[in-house]
């Protein structure tokens, strides 16, 4: 093949063959095709798109560009849940113990990307001693013996995606649905999951701003999963406000424990029950959805799910007493409450603004080598549709820097919009594909 011919073909909106796509990925990762040719091709893809088959071929070529994780020594069907990213998404922290408490084997690999807060591994590492750098054998053995383990992503997982993403980032080609879909699905497929649940978020605090775009992305990823022989289910969920109440790292661990104690916020609980019950169906642990949900609720009620979290924490070197004693988690030096100026109802919460505020407090990474401050973050006590009284506290800021504290109070106040008329709560799950 000749690279300019392939670019020319896509420029004219023609379909690329599997072999051409393989040639491009091999050449790029191998160093024989330069950035400038790939840049031109990415821009052609941005404008002309790719069909389901091309996107699947790209996904598979990318997935095979590095290590393909083999989870076959773990019994049962491995189901992975993946979120496209939102603000304060505490679901994975809850799902790990909740799903394994009903018999699902959960082998979770999670990245440490940029974001408003850390990823799931960063959040868990706010527990003293907790280690997310497991070698493959320890990881697999842990899943086999206690039912769940979490580890940082292998450095050699989908190198093609690392290279392509960096190039997309500087050539204004990130927001192409086939490129996003192949980026996400290649990592899921290389990660070794048999079946995949995708949480495609939309709204002000998400990558996809509209329901329609999220739906298009979800449909394409489900199709890729099907063509690649990995059953995939996608949910379109709300990110017009943060999920649950905590935005941070240590405080999201607290929030997850609260859910496992039956005291978590209803929207976070609803999403966790939906994903965990779907995992049970996909893993063939249960065939009836209602029964699956009931088993999960029982597991929370009886303390089984919480006990499983304790076991997972202990197994990875963490201090499992945090389950009962939150004061063992890192604590911020300063805190400040934010109170309502008038009676009213919460009309809107600017999730993106809160996320950015949490990040600037130190909860997330702006650059790859930034260090996360596990103690800082934002608690919100009111969600859209909730009533507030004058003087009532609706948020609390945790900071390790006094100047940032007062700035964050101001930002949080600006992120909340109130109204005098009562309004409906926002639904969390909008569609299932
Ligand atoms: N998340 C990814 O992993 N890849 C993208 O391209 C976009 C979001
Ligand atoms: Ca949360």
TrEMBL record:
What Enzyme Commission number(s) appear in the record? 2.4.2.2
Q: What class of enzyme is it?
A: transferase
Q: Which SMART domains match?
A: PYNP_C
Q: Which InterPro entries match?
A: Glycosyl_Trfase_fam3, Glycosyl_Trfase_fam3_N_dom, Glycosyl_Trfase_fam3_N_dom_sf, Nuc_phospho_transferase, PYNP-like_C_sf, PYNP_C, Pyrmidine_PPas_bac/euk, Pyrmidine_PPase_CS
Its job: Catalyzes phosphorolysis of the pyrimidine nucleosides uridine, thymidine and 2'-deoxyuridine with the formation of the corresponding pyrimidine base and ribose-1-phosphate.
Q: Which family does it belong to?
A: Belongs to the thymidine/pyrimidine-nucleoside phosphorylase family.
Protein name per UniProt: Pyrimidine-nucleoside phosphorylase
The protein's organism comes out as: Tepidanaerobacter acetatoxydans (strain DSM 21804 / JCM 16047 / Re1)
Q: Which classification does the entry list for the species? A: Bacteria, Bacillati, Bacillota, Clostridia, Thermosediminibacterales
